Amino acid sequence: MAKSNYITRAGWNVLDQELKYLWKDERPKVTQAVSDAAAMGDRSENAEYIYGKRRLREIDRRVRFLSKRLEVLQIVDYNPKQEGKVFFGAWIELENEEGEIKRYRIVGCDEFDPAKNWISIDSPVARALIGKQIDDEVRVETPAGKILLYVNNIWYEK
């Protein structure tokens, strides 16, 4: 399945800040450390040099990824027309058949975070919830089997 290119404004800002930090702060420091380590002589057994070069490759790889990804991402801002229905960026309170209540936020694949209960727009649960309203029943096919969820509440950060 292809990744969606949607992201919240806050998520885009986080990725942009990471790119700026890596390019303007981290990379120059590591480059200087590698230069200093190289000046010490034998590079084949110089741990600082070897580690620094490895870290530079990691930074460059991440910078390339972030640069390309930020170009294609589409920021989705809150729209008052979304009220009452589940769309991108929504917080949803769901209840399962056992009465357990959980809250989730639908975000882009670049910002999902299980610790914060942020789920990707590409996940089966999020796809099943799009367009639903309060009191709707949602059947979701998960790897563990089919589950039935009830939409108790929907809200957006403005």
Strand order of the largest sheet: 5-4-3-7-6
- Helix-and-strand structural type: alpha/beta
How much is the average pLDDT?
92
Question: From the alpha-carbon coordinates, what is the Rg to the nearest angstrom?
Answer: 22 Å
Count of helical segments? Answer: 3
What is the ordering of alpha helices and beta strands? Answer: EHHEEEEHEE
What form results from the Cα inertia axes? Answer: elongated
Unreliable sequence segments = none
**Secondary structure: helix percent:** 25-40%
Largest sheet: 5 strands, mixed
Task: Please indicate the percent range of residues in DSSP E strands (runs of 2 or more).
Answer: 15-25%
β-strand number: 7
**Ends: how far apart?**
30 Å
Give structural notes.
The structure is a single chain. By secondary structure, the chain is α/β, with parallel strands linked by helices. The protein is 39% helix and 25% strand. The chain has three helices and seven strands, in the order E-H-H-E-E-E-E-H-E-E. The longest helix is centred in the N-terminal third of the chain and has 30 residues, at 9-38. The protein has helices at residues 9-38, 47-72, 124-129; strands spanning 6-7, 74-75, 90-96, 101-107, 118-120, 137-142, 145-156.
